Amino acid sequence: MSPSPSASAVPGADQAVALGLTREEYALVCEELGGREPNEVELAMFSLLWSEHCAYKHSKKLLRTLPTEGAAVVLGPGENAGAVDVGDGWAVAFKVESHNHPSAVEPFQGAATGVGGILRDIFALGARPIAVLDSLRFGEPSSERSRYLLDRAVAGIGHYGNSIGVPTVGGEVVFEGPYETNCLVNAMAIGLARAEDMVRSAAAGIGNILVLFGASTGRDGIGGASVLASAELDAADDSKRPSVQVGDPFEESKLLECSLELLADELLVSLQDLGAAGLTSAASEMASKGGVGLDLDVAKVPLREADMEPFEIMVSESQERMLCVCTPAHVAAVLAVCEKWEVNGTAIGVVTDTGRFRVLRGDEVVGDMPVSGLVDDCPLYDLEPAKPAAGLYPAPAAVLGFEADVREVLVTLLASPNLASRRPLFEQYDCLVQSRTVRRPEQADAAVLWLHDMGRDAPAIATSIDGNGRRVAADPYWGTVGNALECAANLACVGAVPLGTTNNLNFGNPEKPHIAWQLTEAVRGLGDACRALEAPIVGGNVSLYNEGAAGPIYPTPVVGMVGLLPDPRRAGRLGFLREGDAIALAGWDGPPSLAASELAKLRGEPLPDGLPPVDLPRAIAVLDAIRSAVRAGALSSCHDIAEGGFLVAVAESCLAGDLGAALDLGDSDDVWTQLFGEHPGGFVVSGPREALDRLGQTIPVQVVGTVGGDTLEVAIASLRETWPLDELREAHASLAPLFP
Amino acid sequence: MKLGVVTFPGTCDDVDARLAAAKVADAVALWHRDPDLHGVDGVIVPGGFSYGDYLRAGAIARFSPVMASVVSFARAGGPVLGICNGFQILCEAGLLPGALLPNTGLRFVCRQVDLVVQTTDTPFTSTCTVGEILSIPAKHTTGRFFGDVAPEQVVLRYAPGHNFNGSQDDIAGIVNEQGNVMGLMPHPEHAVDRLVGGSADGLKLFEGMARVAVA
After folding, report:
1. Model ipTM?
2. pTM score above 0.80
3. What is the chain A residue with the closest CA to B111?
4. Would you state the pLDDT for residue A230?
5. Chain A residues within an 8 Å CB radius of B108
6. What pLDDT, in 10s, does the model give residues B147-160?
7. Of A29, A125, A511, B137, which sits 20 to 30 A from A226 (CA to CA)?
8. Which residues of chain A have pLDDT under 50?
């Protein structure tokens, strides 16, 4: 047993409970400390590292069931981000993370620092960030609060990404009632590195030096991980505003260049960003991975406020900070690079062989804990899943009557918040910087980024992020399978094959059996889909306790995928390209379903109990055929049929290409299902008739019309409808008034 | 033939500008703390958020050691091109008239815009024709041009319907009285390769700059 630290006062078990630990966990903490109670510093550190956010104590067992290995995997879960091989010794690192609760409390800074945090995860690996995507959920825009959250979150994402010079190339936003009091802000970042240059985060080398560099440390974000991220939101949220961090993209831009230069100069042993739980988490994880101890002197940490207590310094979530380990011989060179980039650089600690994390203030020991206890010994809990006897979610408010005709339904769908053009949002993001963007938003189903660093014949990656929560609420297993397939379909539309997957599991309180059931089923679906797609999960994040006064959010497993396409010049596009091209419905061999569809939502229908299953091998065969056709340059356009169904997809291809279409769908038993039903695995493709016929030799292809003119015409059963494109375009622009 | 591209802390589009410059010349990186221009024949002050746009876009960068050299280079007749934040810096440095104000919508906007060439009597547009339309992306929050500028100094205007920032008289780009210093808000370096630019119209400005830099 180590000597008791000198900082005397013992906060006690009640304070531990206030910080989010259970009494049983507190007793375990005392055991870790050899039978004594933790002091203020130690309790602050244990309560954060044993929080749901840091310890994944309700999800870790489930996450272990996910597929994480594959031919392309360079780095799997456990590092700052995962990475996949893109050829010639290059690797692409990527990860999605949530910043839901901070964004619900202060949307601009919450979203901005969400982007800042995920970018640091990427360059902590030594990868240069090349893209950001975001996945957002709000209540219906008819709510003033939702409009405020949307406006400020979008502004925050743009503020950070634009200023730091990383393009925001894609994303999604969905509006549903269950997100009204608990919005979701998930950000995904992608980076590029030479595989051999990627750095790990394990501290190593007894006597090596810990250098903290970047911004100074203040009182912002204290307790963010435990106060905000690991408990349900309530009415007193405003009082939590001091727990939200404040971002400075200028500081991070210098930090990014400084970090990459330190790595390029081979000055570092390891590197880690400071995120949730600040120094506490960064330092103890580095020590744990290296199997070493640390002595860290808080008196050396540059502070914004001189009178900060040791525990505040250890748990501060001040942004734009990194922690590295270097040899004593390299300290001067490390500090010189910091000086070049005008960031603070300070040696604050040393690697020891004790296995203990000692927090010092000058000569005084103010905390002394076993590293393994902090990082590895948090108890993991088994979920107790139980399918709820009745639906959890109220039916949405009806905005369309069942009497509405096809003409009105298409216009209403295109104007509905979930399907309307995202132009007013994505125009607030720089999608071009770094000169990689082959396909911008609304040009294709996935963003396409040329990796020009790899030379003139360099390949491109494609990326997409998706997570339909309503379908997962209706059926956690098949809904989540659908989310993964949707990502893979978006990639196929541009000609890309998936290399790897990241995910952010946004769920309610896992201690409730019905939420545990949603989570368990969703993870099972994600694992099965990613195994079938050969798109292993290389990293991700879990955000639980997403509940407000009105109940839990829709279970929202957000799936992000990165794929490779060898020839960026052949990247597919979603808009119709040539008058006279044939249009086909490809992939489906049976009718889709209106269950949990956008049309069902607009009609105010309650969620169904279950979705039709998907034939995974068949769906994947369709993806393979679509991808091959796009890569061969055989198709003029390719668009996955997603929310809104077939006719919405055709209208989107019309609007993206500014070309009309004439469709004759023949007889139909069920016009509504055929036009607006949803199911994974369907595509709207256009091209020369022969090319579509060739595609039809491998997968179901039904040629249904011709590209041309400035109207969309549909003949189905006895129905004949015509929409001028201008009318559809006006409907599709319905979000513009939200951003005056 | 060497074109220098300045990097300040917070500059974002310097890599893009070097890629564009490399299509017409040797691209040389210039560092804000280093007053040595390394014998370049022309200087590009690229886009981004130098010094985080703190105080005012471009207000701090113009005091950098490298800018004193850029000002001398420009006064001696050397060609200087300021793009977006570079335009803001050149205005702050007094090399170009006027100022860039926040967009009327007060939002960052990233959009492909059409620009109409007003004059070919500048190095930069010497490869264009008057009235030619250039499709080039613009992306900024602070791009509304305001100031006293002679009509013959206006090089590029936004085509009808493309002036999203509210610039006076649709002005997108101007030159100084001598014609050797140009600033524009849209990003020609993001329109030099059809694969990633949507158009290659921006290349003409770099070609023009290189042509004069050689002469």
Report:
1. 0.96
2. yes
3. A427
4. 55
5. 158-159, 162, 428-430
6. 999 999 999 999 99
7. A125
8. 1-3, 7
Mutating which of B106, B107, B113 best tests the A interface, going by the most A Cβ atoms within 10 A?
Answer: B107
Let me know the angle formed at the C-alpha of B120 by B80 and B74, rounded to the nearest 5 degrees. Answer: 20
Cβ contact, residue pair B49, A158, below 8 Å = no
Question: How many percent of chain B have pLDDT more than 70?
Answer: 99
Supply the pLDDT for residue A2.
45
- Please say if B189 is a catalytic residue: yes
Residue A162 and residue B49: Cβ atoms within 8 Å? yes
Is B140 annotated in the active site? no
Interface contact B108-A248, CB threshold 8 A: no
d(CA B129, CA A624): 48
CATH homologous superfamily of B2-214 equals Class I glutamine amidotransferase (GATase) domain (3.40.50.880)
Q: Which residue of B has its CA nearest to A570?
A: B195
- Exposure string for A171-206, b = 16+ CB within 10 A, e = fewer: bbbbbbbbbbbbbbbbbbbbbbbebebbbbbbbbee
Q: In this structure, what DSSP letter does residue B179 have?
A: S
- The domain ranges of chain B are 2-214
Closest partner CB to B139 (pick from A432, A434, A569): A432
Which chain A residues have a beta carbon less than 8 Å from that of B198?
440
**Could you tell me which CATH number the domain at A573-740 has?**
3.90.650.10
Catalogue the long-range contacts made by B194-197 (C-beta closer than 8 Å, 24 or more residues apart): B195/A438, B195/A450, B195/A568, B195/A569, B196/A432, B196/A435, B196/A436, B196/A437, B196/A438, B196/A450, B196/A452, B197/A435, B197/B137
